[in-house]
Amino acid sequence: xxxxACMKKxxxxxxxxxxxxxxxxxxxxxxxxxxxxxxxxAMIELDGTVVFVGDIHGDFQTTKxxxxxxxxxxxxxxxxxxxxxxxxxxxxxxxMTYLLLLKCWFPQKIVLLKGNHECNYLIPxxxxxxxxxxxxxxxxxxLHERFVEVFSVMPLMVLSHKVFAAHGGIDKGxxxxxxxxxxxxxxxxxxxxxxxxxxxxxxxxxxxxRFNKNDLLGFLDGIHASVFVRGHDYTTLGFSIYxxxxxxxxxxxxxxxxGNGGILVAxxxxxxxxxxxxxxxxxxxxxxxxxxxxxx
Length: 296
Ligand SMILES: [Mn+2]
Known about the structure:
CATH architecture: 4-Layer Sandwich
Helix content: 25-40%
Bound molecules: manganese (II) ion
Number of strands: 13
C-alpha cells in the first residue's frame, strides 16, 4: 500500500527522488490530488502574499528553485503549462508529479491553474509530447489517462489583490458573477482564458479571441481588478502593455536565446494599483535578481 503522507519528508528533503517513482506511485499521487482540484472553483480568490509563476514547461530545476525561494509565501500560483518543450529528459513527468505532490500536502498554498498544454484533451495543442513521454517512461499510456482526469478539474483563474491571473487571456464582457460560475471545461471559456493572446502579440495560435486594450480595460474595470498577469508566451515576457495593465511572465529555461530573455516570477503583498506595485524577480542567471518590468 502506497502512502502519500510517508513520501512527504523524503520528497521535501530531496525532490529529485521523484525521478525514482514507479507508475503505481504516480497513480496514487493523481488519485489523491484529484478531489482537491474538484473542490476548487474555476476562479480562486486569495489573500496574503501571493507569487505568480509563468509557464514552467518541464523545467524541473527551475521549479525546485521557485519552491525553495517562495515556499514561505502564503500562496504560490502557477499559471499553467507544466509539461512539453522540456529542457531535460522526463522533465514534464518530474515537474508535474512534484507539483501535484506539493498540492496534496499544501492544498491552500500551492495553486495550479490550467495551461493550454493541460487542455490538449479539449483543444489539441502543439507540441504535445507528454503522452509519448509517459509511454516511453512506463511502457503504456494508462497513466496519461489518469493525468488527463486531473488536468480536467484544474482551476482556470485567480483573483488576488486586484490582480486577475489566467494562463492566456480574459473572458471579454464577463462579470464577476459569471466568472465564479464558469465550468472548467467550457470550450469557449477555455479558449478565452487559456488560449488567447493580446491583439498586439506576434504570436498567432489560431484559437481564442484576441483581446485589445479596450477589451482588457473594460474587463478589468468590470471585475474591479487593476492588472492582468498571464503566461503563455515567451516572446512578450517581462513587457507590460495596454497602459501598464497586462504583464506576461514566462518561468522556464525553455526557449532561452530564442526570444525568452528571462525566468520571471511576480509577487503581490498588498492591493495592486499598477504593475510597478508587483515585485518581479528573474532567475535566468541562476541567482534571484530584481527585474524592472519594461512598459511599452
Ligand atoms: Mn501556453
